[in-house]
Amino acid sequence: MKGSLKLGTIGGIGIFVHWTFTLLIAFIIYINYRTGYNAMQIAWSVLFIVCVFVTVFLHELGHSFAAKSFNIKTKDITLLPIGGVSRLESLPEKPKEELIVTLAGPLVNIVLAFITGLFIDFPSTSEALAQELSAGVNASNFFLNFFIVNILLAVFNLIPAFPMDGGRILRAILSFKFERHVATKIAARIGQFLAMGFILLGFLYNPFLIFIGVFVIMGAQMESKYADSKYSLKGYRVRDVLMKQFTTIDAAEPIKTAIDLLLDSQSKIFLITENNEPVGTLNRDQIIVALSEEGENFLIHSAMNKSLIYLDVETLLEDVFELIYKNKSNLMLVMENNELVGTLDTENLLEFLLIKGVKSKKDYAN
């Protein structure tokens, strides 16, 4: 993720923190200062926030290690002010695997809360608890606050709404009985119903709940659409959607050549060759960046994407849908018997889905 600082690597997983995390720390310091806390109290608050994000990191690491047990690799984990994001190479689709991988995150929070609870003398009444927490984070209530945060994180993530873990757990349970796309749609609708409750409560009590509600509605919609699109490709192969006509440019040509082709055709991504062999791809965004930073005489070889993605012509589209979806701005090369027979990009796949959807509606109407 752009704007992220790499902290290190654990088990082959890159650990990053986004630069905006520093803004959160600055905000915490400012709020505590305005409240009238002294330097020691502010230091405890900052330490607590850092510990919370260590917890978020461990939550994501739980997902990653569980996924690893099913041979699913995690590219990296990035800590953001709003939480953590782990990028898995693929999502587990078998109900049992998805259930285990998804539960692993909240389970980490529950285990941390249990361990922390062993070292806490809990207040005997709710009034005493409120009194203990009212003074802000300090040495005497640090672990109590940490315990409460882990419980809240576990409960919040278990809410059955996408994109929280609870939505995926619900989808996994439903998938034991229904097709995955149907289970996704049911889970998404339940999540959106709950999101409307968040929005209503947000207007009445806390505006932040409105943000959560909108976030859940959008996340559920995207998840449902993704599952429907993938299901629509069931039974089709790469052969059915490949483009046999595609534009190639020699790597030794200047960016001006790519600009002329961009303006004179419908193509937005080009295959770059050297001695008639594929060596890279070049999309519209890369052309614009090269033009603005280096000028129109900049060589394509230095501007192209050298990471080529190959697909076999007989591969089922549902098996590579996630790969295609994650490489929206790339051109993929389709091979048959070690020979290039066509290309495929996301736009062509979306057009295929659009036409298929129209035909299905027409056939249903007839």
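That was protein one. Protein two is written in the same sequence-then-structure order:
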Amino acid sequence: MTEPKINALLDAAEPKTLVEGAYRQLHNNIISGIHPPGEKLRVEHLKDQYDVGAGTLREALLMLVTDTLVVAQGQRGFRVAPISLNDLEDITRSRLLIECTALEQSIKHGDENWESTLIAAFHHLSRVEERIAAGATDSTCEWELRNKAFHDALISACPSRWIQYFQSILYKQSERYRRLSILKQPIVRDVHSEHVILYEAAIARDVTRARSALSEHILRTLDGIKKMPIDFFNGNGKKVA
């Protein structure tokens, strides 16, 4: 299975195969911290948990190796990829380079369909953010989907499929850190205001302002995690400046 096909599995409404279903469940459970960084993923145990055969589970784990969320250890099996501040800084630098370029290209090449897609994505994201601001506690999963849809819409007119693909990998990696941080200590920030500024700059075709807004938006996650308790990276590498 090729890398773009692996990425597409996460966007499907329902899994079409057992491998696809196991891949998506494992992916979500790693991103959300159910399988924490560094955990050994024992096929003989997980196959019962996910109700699939050993061969099916190994295929799903190999797909997650491609996503760099799982590490293959030769004959010793698989582990959830570790985390560290150095890794997050590297992911952030790479995401700034790739995603800001993708946004610039998208703004330059975007047509009315791109604008319509972006307007709709921002509208749906704003609605769920309004509910969360009003105290809704059951909208987190919906927010995650809407947030990804908004970021996807921003760069959807970028003509390079490889830039879009690499952005999707980096987004998943940064999402993993952000969601793990929520389990420890949610980062206090006005994310909706950040989205408003980014949306308004993009829809106005203001490349300079849009790049600046996106850069600040991405860097706030890194800055927030730098302020996390020292045990955030425990067992997965020391938290270093």
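Residues 1-12, 235-241 have pLDDT under 50 and may be disordered. Keep this in mind for the problem set.
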